[in-house]
Design a protein that fits this description.
The protein is α+β, with helices and mostly antiparallel strands and 413 residues long. It contains 14 helices and 22 strands. The protein folds into 3 domains: 247 residues, FAD/NAD(P)-binding domain (3-Layer(bba) Sandwich), CATH 3.50.50.60; 78 residues, Elongation Factor Tu (Ef-tu), domain 3 (Beta Barrel), CATH 2.40.30; 66 residues, Helicase, Ruva Protein, domain 3. The strands form 6 sheets. The chain has a 7-stranded antiparallel beta sheet with strand order 17-16-13-14-15-12-18. α1 packs parallel to α14. The structure holds flavin-adenine dinucleotide.
């Protein structure tokens, strides 16, 4: 017997809205209900990117794009291939929302306001008759022929397709209903995207000084990142640090955020090659000052490093001893800072961990354990570095789920 199929979307955030709206466009016969447990819709979209919403990243090579996901880099490729930055730009353009790329590749609406994105989704949801219930979430579900959902207001609801897009959370307890009802394993959630606290920083007083390219590594952790560094009141920040925090999120958690951080201010050199360069420079141009030799470092930082190794930055190279040159090479290529704790970066954080990807068909985003159950967005064990990659993962995974649900619904009609 043919009846109207129902899709329920758990979570009225980025992935939930995108999945719901696209399923509605692709299969108008489907009845779609978004359940949002809070009274706020698209809350993170609204506050994202400092109120500007960094929608995606201007990167059109899917392999390179996928490299921005410490968790999910291989598994996401298929979803990103089908629905990457190019497709989201086109999707918004069709709805008269133009996106622009900044120099570093981040893409924002031309309006510079996240409200443009929020309004676009709300308008599309209204246009395609997506029903939205807020203040009520899913507490549990059972799957027989159909899903029977138990809602947080103790009522029940039946549906044929369930898309779980409830976002990330640092508390494992928030995933319990998912694992209890579906049997899915949850990779324990941890925070990603943070800056490093260096309470005994030798760079105190240099807040605001930035270096365009340093290589940062962590003692006993295999990841390293090259990029801009910013010295802050509480330690170090900037793209290199935030990216490293994402790649090393789990290892740093295990070390309770206590770790030796190494900074190489000349990423193309190591201590030995740099020392040899200093020695040969001293032999060839003994009258050159250090100041002239390393002009790429900001003056205040150069001065501080020279103070630490007890060298006058204006002194001629010829007057600097081997011991001093060696110390200088060490400080400039392997400066050690002691990290003790972390600080959230501009309140932007993502969760590393969530529903394990091994149990999901990453082409369709359907559960391998429960048929017609789908997952999208940050609830999955997927997270990206800053720059629009987290929203891009939400769009790509929810679009994959919407395409599958819509075609399955049509087959069943
Ligand atoms: C301050 C801040 C700024 C950010 N800026 C950017 C940015 O500019 N670019 C970028 O790419 N990423 C950014 N991020 C990350 C990005 O916001 C998230 O990765 C993205 O919102 C994930 O989308 P989602 O739909 O999976 O989850 P969410 O947007 O978190 O939505 C999940 C929704 O599900 C609801 N929910 C939870 N449990 C239930 C339940 N049981 N039943 C029903 N509903 C439930 C929640 O209330 C929530 O509304 C930012 C994050 C923060 C915190």
């Amino acid at each position: 017997m043919s009846y109207q199929r129902i899709m329920v979307v758990a979570g009225g955030g980025a992935a939930g809205f995108f999945g719901a709206v696209n399923a509605a466009i692709l299969c108008p016969e489907l009845k779609i209900i978004i359940l949002e447990k809070t009274h706020k819709l698209l809350a993170k979209v609204r506050i994202s990117g400092g109120g500007r919403c960094n929608v995606t990243h201007a990167c059109y090579d899917n392999r390179l794009l996928a490299e921005n996901y410490p968790r999910g880099n291989k598994e996401l490729r298929s979803a990103l291939q089908k629905f990457g930055p190019k497709e989201i730009i086109e999707w918004f353009a069709l709805r008269n929302v133009k996106l622009k790329a900044e120099e570093d590749g981040r893409m924002f609406p031309v309006s510079n306001s996240s409200e443009t994105i929020v309004n676009c989704y709300l308008n599309e949801a209204a246009k395609y008759k997506v029903e939205i219930k807020n203040g009520v979430g899913i507490a549990a579900f059972q799957k027989n022929e159909r899903f029977t959902l138990t809602l947080t207001d103790k009522t029940t609801l039946e549906c044929d397709y369930l898309l779980i897009s409830t976002g990330g959370s640092p508390a494992l307890s928030n995933y319990k209903w998912i694992s209890d009802c579906s049997g899915h394993r949850i990779v324990p959630p941890l925070p990603s995207l943070f800056t490093f606290n260096i309470p005994d920083s030798p760079f105190l007083g240099l807040e605001g000084v930035s270096v365009p390219a340093v290589k940062v590594s962590l003692n006993g952790i295999k990841h390293d990142v090259t990029g801009p560094l910013l010295i802050t009141h509480w330690g170090v920040s900037g793209p290199a640090i935030i990216r490293l925090s994402a790649w090393a999120a789990r290892e740093l958690y295990e070390k309770d955020y206590n770790c030796m951080v190494k900074i190489n201010f000349f990423p193309e050199e190591n201590t030995e090659t740099f020392k040899q360069k200093l020695i040969s420079e001293r032999a060839q141009s003994p009258h050159t000052s250090l100041q002239q030799l390393i002009p790429s470092l900001p003056q205040r930082l150069r001065q501080r490093i020279c103070e630490i190794v007890n060298v006058n930055p204006n002194a001629a190279l010829g007057s600097i001893s081997n011991v001093q040159l060696n110390q200088l090479a060490v400080k400039l290529t392997a400066f050690e800072l002691t990290m003790k704790g972390k600080t959230t970066f501009k309140d932007e954080f993502v969760t590393s961990g969530g529903v394990t990807l091994k149990e999901i068909n990453m082409q369709t985003m359907e559960s391998k354990l429960v048929s017609n159950l789908f997952f999208a967005g940050e609830v999955l064990d997927v997270d990206g570095v800053t720059g629009g990659f987290n929203f891009q993962a939400a769009w790509a995974t929810s679009m994959a789920a919407a395409l599958t649900i819509a075609s399955r619904c049509k087959e069943n009609m």
